[in-house]
Write a structure and sequence with these properties.
- This protein is mainly α and 103 residues long.
- It has a domain of 68 residues.
- It is built from 3 helices and no strands.
- Helix 1 runs antiparallel to helix 2.
- The longest helix has 37 residues.
- The chain is elongated and about 55 Å long.
- The model has no long low-confidence stretch (mean pLDDT 76).
Length: 103
């Protein structure tokens, strides 16, 4: 029978492998999107391909969010500690402050 330490180690390894796989997939999709944007295909076919790639990227993002929610819930159950807005903001991706959205 496996000990708790072994199970945790295996879980961490799987998590790292899954994260690497998702990151590679995201990078591949972004490269495809850039390549498709530069290609000289007919416009309607090009647009449908680009829309399909963007939808795949969005679906991956939704999966990542659901995973983060499950991890937060598991942490709360395990440690009886709520994840506060402070900790969610620490995990949030940093946005480029130089982007001006509107004037």
């Amino acid at each position: 029978m496996k000990t708790k330490k072994e199970i945790k180690r295996i879980g961490k390894e799987e998590s790292i492998n899954r994260r690497r796989m998702l990151t590679k997939r995201k990078n591949d999709l972004q490269k495809k999107l850039m390549k498709e944007g530069r290609s000289n295909n007919n416009n309607s076919h090009k647009e449908t391909k680009m829309i399909k790639i963007i939808k795949e990227l969005n679906n991956d993002g939704k999966k990542r969010i659901k995973t983060a929610q499950m991890i937060a819930k598991a942490k709360y159950i395990k440690e009886r500690q709520k994840s506060t807005k402070y900790f969610f903001n620490l995990k949030k991706d940093k946005k480029d402050p130089s982007i001006i959205k509107a004037l």
